[in-house]
Each structure stands twice: as structure tokens, then as C-alpha cells.
Amino acid sequence: MPFTPVSAVGEFGLIDRLGHALGQPIDDDLVQGIGDDAAVYRVGEGRVHVVTTDLLVEGVHFDRTFVPMRYLGWKALAVNVSDVAASSASPRWATVGLGLPNNVSVEQLEALYEGLAEACAAFGCTIVGGDTVAAARLHLSITLIGEAAEDAVVYRRGARPGDLLCVTGDLGSAAAGLRVLLSGKQGMEGGSGDGSGGDGAPGDGTEGGGGALPLADFAYAVERQLYPRPRLDRVKHWAERGVRPHALIDVSDGLASEVHHLCRASGVGAVIEGGLIPVHIQTLRAAERFGEDPATFALYGGEDYELLFAIPESLAAGLDSDTFAVVGQVVEAEEGVTLRQPDGEVIPLNPGGFEHFRGPRPE
Amino acid sequence: MPFTPVSAVGEFGLIDRLGHALGQPIDDDLVQGIGDDAAVYRVGEGRVHVVTTDLLVEGVHFDRTFVPMRYLGWKALAVNVSDVAASSASPRWATVGLGLPNNVSVEQLEALYEGLAEACAAFGCTIVGGDTVAAARLHLSITLIGEAAEDAVVYRRGARPGDLLCVTGDLGSAAAGLRVLLSGKQGMEGGSGDGSGGDGAPGDGTEGGGGALPLADFAYAVERQLYPRPRLDRVKHWAERGVRPHALIDVSDGLASEVHHLCRASGVGAVIEGGLIPVHIQTLRAAERFGEDPATFALYGGEDYELLFAIPESLAAGLDSDTFAVVGQVVEAEEGVTLRQPDGEVIPLNPGGFEHFRGPRPE
Predict the structure, then answer these.
(1) CA nearest to A122, candidates A232, A238, A262
(2) Alpha-carbon gap: B22 to the closest alpha carbon of chain A (Å)
(3) Is A149 in a helix, a strand, or coil?
(4) Whole-structure pTM value
(5) What fold is seen in the domain A164-360?
(6) For residue B84, which of A159, A188, B146, B247 is within the disulfide window of CB 3.0 to 4.6 Å?
(7) ipTM of this predicted complex?
(8) Chain B positions in Cβ-Cβ contact with residue A79 (cut-off 8 Å)
(9) pLDDT value at position A204?
(10) Contacts of B110 in chain A (CB under 8 A)
(11) Is A6-152 a CATH 3.30.1330.10 domain?
């Protein structure tokens, strides 16, 4: 039997292989299985439940050095709420699995749970169960169940050529915030990775050579990284206006990656207008400080937990104009997925994004 | 802020503290939150869903040395099915979270998923989603959603003095199987823990000094450990006979521990008749070989995934007599939880059982 490393097929290749091992699901109540932000099944009376699960592992998704436990609790629930929002549903019930190393105290876990409780109150859901086990590293596994009318759910599939591609909020600031936090950690550790530079104390407003950026100048970006607010407000706005997008996905792995997911599921192509992507001033400043292209943060940064949706212009006109930004257009599949740069040049848009087992692919 | 190690409060103490941090759930559709085998919430039309989650961590719950991946997939789902059965519900939808170290191949994960698929087919449920992340050790996090009529669900609470305490199947054989498998591993590693004894090859029918027991003589016990079959068959039998026990819990951590859970939730006491606990001949033989009391396996062994239930004698008479064994009786809370030994002596029954963060407490 061959031994194929998971890194050779990547996260999405692995999901395909495991889906084949499972076989085709056979259940009349199943509306959507593996392959969208959440699975969807009927519960009767024209209602469906949606379910999503996310694992957060220390050292992969978070660093206890600069992520307070209370924020970690908030974020662990929020990333699941984002998947429920990306189905245009309302979160209801959650379970929490905790893998606990022995250097975590009961008080820290209480802070984690206070963050979970705060998020539950904000998003209207309830933690109903869980499991705790000893583990080498801290990890959280959250499963969230949401509900919706069956005909209100929006999937990744459904985008049609001519639709506008729109996003909520701004993109890239969560990744900029992470870089700022990491620079602070490197500052504490006495250098910027090579053990030599950076004599400025983190957050003191001074800056060592390549070292810590002052947190006060990047408060918005840092908050985006630590305290994401999934876009249930937009889902509610659409419901109030009776507007249903054709296709919908949350932006967790970077816009470039999500556009590809949405296009593949819909059987279409897309043109992203690089000059139209909403970017926060702090993202621009962070990119400048780190000597990077702000488009890298916006397209490949990840963790923004905004929504990307395809919608015909006639329907978009029914929405408040400050609730979204147009970033491109859906085209025929043959045209592929491209990026029109601000200078007018059109180039293929590499999916990039963070992929587990292969790591970040920024180009 | 104090730093209280999790080991100081134990698994159940931790769950209490985290429950307080979450606060009281407020939701009219929630029938049962944290504190039973599964949470229960209404989905309309007199129906409820139940949800349970279990984490399995390499080195804590399983050892890849002697647990084939396909069995691991089966067991990971089966332990959740057991919690759904312990609510007297039918499993429907599952999600799978996978933490993957880089020494696991795609082919091994396909075998794991074939085991999951086999279990899904056997138990009538469907895997609808999941998440995969890189991790230091292999871990699985499964959430299972089941369904039932609201008035059919049975909880841990509800046992009344005078009820019979009954179990399905036999107890202790899964733990005996684990000990046999561990003896085989010690045999492979050249000794029984001290690096000196055990020259018999595992499974060859010979036996080294304190070393490996022959697997062929313990096939039933080993299968109970690797391939548990949760008792949906009994839940179905009860439904067919229109019999609803007063209280119900699955035996995952050992009978002694589960009796205490059921009694605490019901506000009652219990007398367990040591001489009535059903024990398989292979469990007796394994105990003899290891120089242990078979009651230790039966009371504290864990992983049997049988059902413990409290039922009035009049209702029990409506069940096929070979589907359960009476192991004791529910008494008033003041009488506590006791064990009547075969010689007639009555002693307090220590809850024991496996508790995470404190480890096994056999006395």
C-alpha cells in the first residue's frame, strides 16, 4: 500500500479523497453535505438546520503568547458563526471539545469560557455540551448548529455570469494585525527572527530595527485579528430587504482562495478588480512598514471573516450602499479567474490562501 | 489570580466550573443542556434533536501500535452513537474534526474513513462535514446529532427508589481486551514494563514471563475493545415494546462511575449486587492471568458502551429476558451507593472509573 504524505495532496485534495472513502450520502433529508461552508439538513415544517465544525490548534491557529484566553473563546465561536452566516442562517446550538495540556489553569479555562459566553450572547446561540480530554497542546473543537427556512439558505453554488461580486467590510486587516502581533513577540524575544535586531519594547511607540510595531497605531487591525465579528448583521439586512444573493461564502482563507471556491462550486469564472478591494488605512500602513504589497494582505491574508457574495445588480440596488463593496464580476467559466490590476493589466488570480499541510502560498 | 491545575479539580469539577463561567442557558427550545449523555433541543412537530461530542486523542484514548485505522474510525463514531442511544434517540448527522500529525498517510486516513463509513451504515447516520488541521498528535473530534420524539427521550434523572437497575450485555470485557492488547505490545517491546520478561511472540499461543497473552484465546474481549457495538438494538426493542425506562446512561467509564452519575442526577441511592454483574468468561480468564479481581474490570474497566437503566419491575417484565440483566436496585438517597459483595458484605461503592486529568482511580 502506498504511503502518500498528506502534504502531497494538500488540504482540499485530502478532503476529496476522504469524501470518496465515505461514499455518496443517502438520506432524503440531507440538502447539502460536505463541500459548502455548512452542511444543511431538513428538520421539518420547511425549516433546515445547518452544521459546521472548526478545530483551533495551538501553534497552528493561535499563539497563547499574545492571544488572551477570553479572546480565544470569542474567536473560536466566531469562526463557526461566520460559516453559519455564510449559509444565510442563524446560529443556535454549539458544542465545545477541549484538548488540555497540563500548563493551562482552571482560571484560564474560565476566561476562555467567558469569551465563549460573550460570543454566545452576541450571536444568539447556546453552548449545550462538550468534552474535555488531556492533550499535548491546547486545542478547541467547536461544532455549531444554525437554523433557517429552507428557501432562505444561500450556497457557494448559484453565481451566474453578469452577477456582481461583492464583499462586506474590509479585507487584509486581520492578517495585518497578526503581523503586528508577531512583530511584538519577536521584539520580546530580542530580535526579528535572527536574534539580533529590535531593541524597542513592544507597544511603547518606539521601534527597534525591524522589530515590534507600536500596537496603539494598529489597534483596529489587531482587534480584527483577535476579535472577529462575523457578518450576521449583513445576513439580517438582506432578510429585512428580502434580498437573497445568488451565491455566498465567508472570507476565512483570503479573498483569492474564496473566489476560486465560489467559482468552482458555481461553474463560473470571475474578474476581480484589484483597485476596488476595500483596504483599511492600518493595513496600508502595516504593509508599508513590513515592505509588502497591501494587495498580498487583502487577497491572501485570511481570517477577515467577511462575506463574499454574487448578486445581480438589480438586487444589489435594494441594499444599503454602505453594507458592501463591489470587487468584481462573475464571467463565463472559460474566462477563468483573473485579477485586473490598478494599472489595467489582467493576470490570472492564483488561489493562494492558507492551506493546511502545505502552509501559506502567497504567490 | 490563582493558578489551579486542572488535575486539582478533576474532569467533573472542571465541567462544573466551566458551566458556571457560561452562565445559565436561556432558550425556550432547549430541553436538556450540559449534564447528560447528550443535549436535547426542540426542532418542531413534537420532535427533538440530541447532540453529543467526543474527542479521541492518540496516546490518551488509543494507541496506533495495536488499533488499526479502520477500527479507530468505527470506534470514534460508535462512542458517540452510544451517547445518542443513552438518550433513547436515533443517530442522524455527524461531523468529523481531524488533527493530523505528518506521519499519517492519506491511505491510512482513507482506512479511517472507511471505518467511519462502515459505522455510519451500521448505525444509520451520515457524515455531513468536518475540518482537518495539522497537529502534533492524531486526534478525532466527532459531533453526532440524533433525533427522537420529545416524549421518548430518557435522561439520567428519573430513577425512583424501588426501580431495578439493569445493564445490557456484559461488563469488563473491553478493559480485559485492552489489557491483552497491551500485554502484546509489552511483549513486542521485549518485556512487561521492566524490560526483562516476556520472550513469547504476541499471539503465538505461548506466553513469556508476564508477557503477551495469546490473542486467539481472547478474541471476544479484544473485539469488544476495538469494535464496540453501542446498544441501538436495545433502544429499538424498548420502542417496539412501548417500554420507557425511568433513567438511562451508557457505560463508558465503568459501571461504578455511571451508577453514581445516574444516582446524582436522579437524587437517589443504589445497591449493586456484585454477584449479579454479567461478566464474560474471557474477562474472568484475563483477570486470572493478570492476577486481578474480575470485579475490577467489571466495575471500573470502562469502554463497554453498554446501557445502564433504572426501570420498575412491572415494565421490565415486558422486555425479552435475554436483553438485560438486573444488577441492583434503586434506594433512597440517604442510603448512598453501595455494593453488596457475593459474600453478603455491603460496602460503599467508590465511583472510580477513568477520569481525565486524574487518570484511573481503581480504589
Answers:
(1) A232
(2) 5
(3) strand
(4) 0.91
(5) Phosphoribosyl-aminoimidazole Synthetase; Chain A, domain 2 (3.90.650)
(6) B146
(7) 0.90
(8) none
(9) 39
(10) 17-18, 20-21
(11) yes
